[in-house]
């Protein structure tokens, strides 16, 4: 177990920090973990570069943040013997699927707290991931807009995220023997607040996820479309974003409760291989 404390360095003014001085193949001391935990709540996205870790070591460190999730619909896409570890593998035969801003699995009643992504193989060019600060997305809105959004909820539907709008993703699942239509036929949409309160920091964050959100509730259909279009554009504001250029051995862990991300699908036909873990979360809520 290393007794040295990690060094935390911001990677952008808006979001994210690089964590150096930790070898995640070794046990992390309680003191070092406290430094990491505090940085997670402050910066929302943590980059651990140059890690040489096994599946078990990624699981062990990620589990410090909370219980690991298993997704029944993704089991054929996981590492053998490790149902929590999803393999994200794209190459010439398997183009990247999702190319949209989102927060992971918002179509479930208790979406994941966070995500851990480890770079096994990175493309020669492209394949960056953009991360957006949803605290700032809320805080940079005008007071009247904030007041409006605090009153509203949105409907999130798993069937939209795995439907025809995302053809490459649907095709990838079918190749693994997963029929999205059958898998999610009985899964009802869920309702989440448009603005959620972070249970650890108490701060408010914008909470939408384009692949999952079907409408904003409590307003007309045309008003819902206009609001969603505005919020989607707002999320893309450069001042909210950090762009991560992956290097083999990078481990990135982010907080889904106050961030969105976009995996840029610009690297086809190059290979990209990642191991992904989700950390169990709670039902989103708004504290007024």
Topology:
Blueprint (H helix, E strand, L loop, with lengths): L6 E4 L6 E4 L9 H14 L1 E4 L6 H8 L15 E2 L2 E9 L23 E8 L7 E5 H6 L3 H8 L2 E4 L1 H4 L5 H9 L4 H4 L6 E4 L1 E3 L6 E3 L6 E4 L4 H15 L5 E4 L6 E5 L3 E5 L8 E8 L9
Parallel strand pairs: 2-3
Antiparallel strand pairs: 1-2, 3-14, 4-5, 5-16, 6-14, 6-16, 7-13, 7-15, 8-9, 8-12, 10-11
Describe what you observe in this structure.
This protein has about 290 residues and is of the alpha+beta class. It has one domain (about 5-280): Clavaminate synthase-like (Double-stranded beta-helix, 4-Layer Sandwich), CATH 3.60.130.10. It has 8 helices and 16 strands. It has helices at about 30-45, 55-60, 135-140, 145-150, 160, 165-175, 180-185, 220-235; strands spanning about 5-10, 15-20, 45-50, 80, 80-90, 115-120, 130-135, 155, 190-195, 195, 205, 215, 240-245, 250-255, 260-265, 270-280. Strands 1-2-3-14-6-16-5-4 form an 8-stranded mixed sheet, with helices on one face.
């Amino acid at each position: 177990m290393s007794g040295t404390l990690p060094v935390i360095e911001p990677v952008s003014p808006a979001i994210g920090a690089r964590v150096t001085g930790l070898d995640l193949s070794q046990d992390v001391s309680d003191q070092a973990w406290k430094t990491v935990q505090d940085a997670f709540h402050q910066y929302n996205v943590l980059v651990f570069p140059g890690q040489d870790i096994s599946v078990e070591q990624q699981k062990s460190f990620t589990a410090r943040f909370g219980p690991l999730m298993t997704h029944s619909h993704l089991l054929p896409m996981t590492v053998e013997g490790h149902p929590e570890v999803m393999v994200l593998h794209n190459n010439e035969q398997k183009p990247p699927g999702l190319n949209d801003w989102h927060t992971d699995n918002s179509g479930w009643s208790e979406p994941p707290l966070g995500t851990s992504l480890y770079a096994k193989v990175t493309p020669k060019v492209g394949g960056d991931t953009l991360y957006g600060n949803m605290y700032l997305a809320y805080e940079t809105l005008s007071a009247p807009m904030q007041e409006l959004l605090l009153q509203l909820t949105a409907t999130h539907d798993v069937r939209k995220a795995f439907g025809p709008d995302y053809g490459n993703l649907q095709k990838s699942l079918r190749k693994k023997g997963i029929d999205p239509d059958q898998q999610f036929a009985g899964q009802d949409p869920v309702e989440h607040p448009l603005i959620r309160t972070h249970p650890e920091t108490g701060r408010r964050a914008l909470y939408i996820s384009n692949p999952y959100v079907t409408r904003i509730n409590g307003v007309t259909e045309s008003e819902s479309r206009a609001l969603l279009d505005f919020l989607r554009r707002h999320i893309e504001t450069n001042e909210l974003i950090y762009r991560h250029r992956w290097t083999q051995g990078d481990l990135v862990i982010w907080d889904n409760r106050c961030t969105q991300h976009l995996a840029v699908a610009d690297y086809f036909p190059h290979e990209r291989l990642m191991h992904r873990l989700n950390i169990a979360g709670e039902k989103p809520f708004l504290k007024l």
